[in-house]
Structures are given as C-alpha cells and as structure tokens.
Amino acid sequence: MSSTPNFTRGKTMSLLSVRDLTVKFAMRDNTVTALNKISFDLARGERLGIVGESGAGKSITGFALMNLLSRPGFIDSGSILFEGEDMASKSEAQLQAIRGNRMAMIFQDPMVTLNPVLTIGQQMVETLMAHRRLSRAEAEEISILKLREVYIPSPEERLKQYPHELSGGMRQRIIIAIALLLDPQLIIADEPTTALDVTIQADIMELLLELCQSNKVGLILITHDLGVVSQMTERTLVMYAGRIIEAGRTREIINDPQHPYTQGLINALPQQTRPGHRLKQIPGNMPSLTAIPPGCPFSPRCEYAVDRCRVELPEPVRYDHVEVACHEVNRLQKPVAEEQSA
C-alpha cells in the first residue's frame, strides 16, 4: 500500500482536471464546508460515476464544475481545469460561452429545466442561435436532427408543442437532445432519471450511454444508484460528507469495495439480501454540514472505527486497484465477498 496525494489518474491531457476543490456556504455566524479538497481527472470520452447518500456533496460537485453555485455557496479554493481553462476564475460572460456549448448539464426534473411558456422548438432554436451564427431555418433543421437522435417520433410536430403536452420520458429525451445540441465535450447528468417512472429509467440511461459513446462525449453521472453506475460508468468516485473516500474502476469498486462506507452501500442493495430476509442498511445518518465529526466523518457509523479514526482525518492511499481514505483498510474484512459466498 503506497501513499498518494489525491484521487487523480495522473493523466497529462485530461478533459477535466479538478484539484483540491473546496466549496463553502456562508452562514450567519460562520461558514460550513460542503466540499473538502476533492481532486480527480476525467479523460476525453470517459464515463465517471459519483455516488453517495443525500448530503454527500454529489450535486454540489456538479454545480461547482459548471461554476453555477449561487450565494451563499462559493468556491473557496482549488482549481477546475476544463480543457486547460480554469472555470473558477472566469467571468460570467466567459462562462456563458462554455456552458451549454462545450459543457452541458442534465438536471433531475425536466419540468424545472424546460420553460413552460415556450415551445420545444423555441427553446432549442434559441439555444443554438445564442451560441452559433445560424439562421432560424438552419437552427430548426439541427433541432429536428437532434430530436431524431434521441428517438423522438414526429420531431417536426414536437417542436410546436409545450413541455406540459409531453410525457415525462419524452421531456427527458428532449433535455438530452438540448444537452447535445452544440456537441459538447462533457455532459454532467445529475440524477437524470429520478423524476421518471421506473419502467422508463432504463431506456433513458441506455439512450444516454449510446449517445455519449457514439459522440465520444465525456460523462459525469451523479447518482445514488450503484446499479446504474455499474452499467454506465468506467470509473467511480464514492463521496461522503463532502470528501471522496474511494475511487477507482467501477468494476473493482462494485466487486471488491475497500472502504466500510462503500461496503455498506453495496450490502444495502436488494440483490445482496436473500429472499425473505430484512434489507441491510448502514446505521445512522449522513452528518449535517454544521456538525461534521472530527477525524473520519464516517467513524460514528463505522463498525471498524478505532480511536485514531475519531481524531485524525484519513488521507487517501492506494490499496489494490483503488484509492481509499481509511486508516483501517489493511485489516478490514470483505463483507460483500462473505455474503456472496455464504
């Protein structure tokens, strides 16, 4: 086991390179830390999953990457290099030229994303014309082509419709089409199927995967669903209380998790419990940003915690094929493997 400074890949030509990113929220009496020195890289065309419970910092990470944080949230320190350009230091006008154009985001609820008083065609055409020198007819033609790419039937008719006239699945397909309108190099998808019926979720995720692969688009998928991550991504970051606590290839993390928190997430999956038995769960809750415990933030919920865990924050180290922030990784049992062999 060797020490390593952060959760990076060591690549020199990354599409996205995040270093020691710290995000804070200004409160009335003090500030709280929502992201605590997170670092990672994303290669061109790579698919990266970010997983964890609610409050882990997943969505804040996505908003910070796009520099979409609004007060009282702010980037306190660190860098976000997108194609070599620091997103944290750009003006609003410079960011507008990047967002939607070279970097796009898909949000949880399409009804919040789409403007209810504008037709689909108006929203797509105006997006294109804001970033490209196109006539309205050319913008409409591109919009129709993108709707066909996401398998929207009768795309010419859909352009004339308003969001409320379409189903949830159709609206999310349109959101994906809008995200791909300007051929971005990176898409950040924040729980893109949460608001959809479970029968439609798999189709949407399969579509997103297909489009990212065919267009060689980098993808950051933010989700709490490890099953989706296992099917969609090549690498995974596991977050807890604003820190990355395990990182590596998705297959390695799913099959042989090293951090006790990751093991708990895997063990809590329904397929890990025999029929008729109670589902497993991690005891306790994610700590509040205003009450993060000293030492390892997971220590109050961890069955392996020792005195050192309660006073000293663990730094990431390489262990087997992953990087993990845990003092006791050398002596941990592998609950997942034991359950599967039982």
Automatic annotation (TrEMBL):
<dbReference type="GO" id="GO:0005524">
    <property type="term" value="F:ATP binding"/>
</dbReference>
<dbReference type="InterPro" id="IPR013563">
    <property type="entry name" value="Oligopep_ABC_C"/>
</dbReference>
<keyword id="KW-0547">Nucleotide-binding</keyword>
<keyword id="KW-0813">Transport</keyword>
<comment type="similarity">
    <text>Belongs to the ABC transporter superfamily.</text>
</comment>
<dbReference type="InterPro" id="IPR017871">
    <property type="entry name" value="ABC_transporter-like_CS"/>
</dbReference>
<dbReference type="InterPro" id="IPR003439">
    <property type="entry name" value="ABC_transporter-like_ATP-bd"/>
</dbReference>
<keyword id="KW-0067">ATP-binding</keyword>
<protein>
    <submittedName>
        <fullName>Oligopeptide/dipeptide ABC transporter, ATP-binding protein</fullName>
    </submittedName>
</protein>
<dbReference type="GO" id="GO:0016887">
    <property type="term" value="F:ATP hydrolysis activity"/>
</dbReference>
<keyword id="KW-1003">Cell membrane</keyword>
<dbReference type="GO" id="GO:0055085">
    <property type="term" value="P:transmembrane transport"/>
</dbReference>
<dbReference type="Pfam" id="PF00005">
    <property type="entry name" value="ABC_tran"/>
</dbReference>
<dbReference type="InterPro" id="IPR050388">
    <property type="entry name" value="ABC_Ni/Peptide_Import"/>
</dbReference>
<dbReference type="InterPro" id="IPR003593">
    <property type="entry name" value="AAA+_ATPase"/>
</dbReference>
<keyword id="KW-0472">Membrane</keyword>
<dbReference type="GO" id="GO:0015833">
    <property type="term" value="P:peptide transport"/>
</dbReference>
<dbReference type="Pfam" id="PF08352">
    <property type="entry name" value="oligo_HPY"/>
</dbReference>
<dbReference type="InterPro" id="IPR027417">
    <property type="entry name" value="P-loop_NTPase"/>
</dbReference>
<dbReference type="GO" id="GO:0005886">
    <property type="term" value="C:plasma membrane"/>
</dbReference>
<feature type="domain" description="ABC transporter">
    <location>
        <begin position="18"/>
        <end position="266"/>
    </location>
</feature>
